[in-house]
Amino acid sequence: MTEGREDKAAQAHRLREINKQFKRLAPASHAAMREGYQALELKVEQLEQQLATARQDILREVLIEPSIHPSMKAGCAGEFTIDIQVVCPECWNREWDDDEACQFCNNQSDEHSLVDNTVVVPWDTQKEIFKMMSRFKYQALQESNEQ
Ligand SMILES: [Zn+2]
After folding, report:
1. Contacts from 139-146 at CB under 8 Å and sequence distance 24+?
2. Contact yes or no for 138/59 (Cβ under 8 A)
3. pLDDT tens for residues 33-48?
4. What residue numbers bound the domain in which 10 lies?
5. Ligand 1 (ion): which residues have CB within 5 A?
6. Same domain, 138 and 82
7. How far is the CA of 143 from the centre of ligand 1 (A)?
8. Separation of CA 58 and ligand 1 centre (Å)
9. Are 46 and 95 contained in the same domain?
10. Which has the higher per-residue pLDDT, 100 or 87?
11. Rounded to an integer, what distance in angstroms lies between the CA atom of residue 56 and that of residue 54?
12. Residue 48, phi-psi category: left (phi > 0), alpha (psi -120 to 50), beta (remainder)
């Protein structure tokens, strides 16, 4: 019991001492905290700026000068076609009562010598489309950022 009371008295004394020290230190620590907080805010601001710059660099690199990866050609070349009508050069010049099969269109042309033809979009054209679309996307993103 006695020991317990002494302990309580000692604890109370220690708490008072801590409290005194805290009161002495408090203004300084507040200032230090404020300084630390301001430094942190500045750092966050700098990081946000760096991030914005990096984002711009990446967008520019990806959309203004988009590189063509081999997988793009492997996956997309020959995948797009356009159906058009062309004049069959052989049928154009021959008589219509000619029974011989046309070597060029296999007699598929109509009375105007037109024949359906499927044209594959060339890979170079696909690349140009991709690059132009990327540039337009970059421009649109720039404009939405500026607003
Ligand atoms: Zn023909």
Report:
1. 141/59, 141/63
2. yes
3. 889 999 999 999 999 9
4. 1-65
5. 88, 90-91, 102, 104-105, 109
6. yes
7. 53
8. 53
9. no
10. 87
11. 5
12. alpha
Say what the pTM is.
0.56
Distance separating alpha carbons of residues 133 and 120, to the nearest angstrom: 20
Hey, CA dihedral for 99, 104, 107, 110, is it positive or negative? Answer: negative
CB atoms within 10 A of CB 88: 23
Provide DSSP, 25-64.
HHHHHHHHHHHHHHHHHHHHHHHHHHHHHHHHHHHIIIII
Please give the distance, rounded to the nearest whole angstrom, from the Cα atom of residue 98 to the centre of ligand 1. 11
User: Which amino acid type is present at position 111?
Assistant: E
Confidence of residue 98 (pLDDT cuts 50, 70, 90): low
Are 52 and 39 in a shared domain?
Answer: yes
Count of residues for the chain?
A: 147
| Cα 130 to middle of ligand 1, angstroms | 36
Which of 65, 85, 108 lies at the terminal end of a domain, its last residue?
Answer: 65
Q: For the residues of 95-125, what is the DSSP string, one character each? A: -TT--SPPTTTTT---TTSEEEEEEEPPHHH
Distance 120 CA to ligand 1 centre (A): 20
